[in-house]
Amino acid sequence: MVVFYSYLGNKYHLDGANEKEKVAISLVEQQIQDMNSGMVRVSYDPAWEKLKEEYLKGLPANLKLLSNYLGEKPFVAGTSFSYVDSWVSNIIFFENLI
Fold first, then answer.
1. Is 65 strand, coil or helix?
2. What are the beta bridge partners of residue 75?
3. Is the pTM of this model over 0.85?
4. What is the DSSP string of 78-95?
């Protein structure tokens, strides 16, 4: 999934205008990938109810990290929309479904 998002971001110039933006996008991309992997692991496991409780205990800390990083910026890269912004909104949407 990461490769797909990254490819589209590069193709449509949504991967940062400079090195600082590219680094910011990459950092958040990895954090979102970790959150997504955890959610997928819980969702497809037969013991998902037990794993869900454990996952939800760690979720506030993960969301706090993301919130602290974003601060007052409208987008991950500052004022420019990037492919990771789309992924961030998707992961937050799916976290609400759990």
1. helix
2. 78
3. no
4. BSS--HHHHHHHHHHHHH
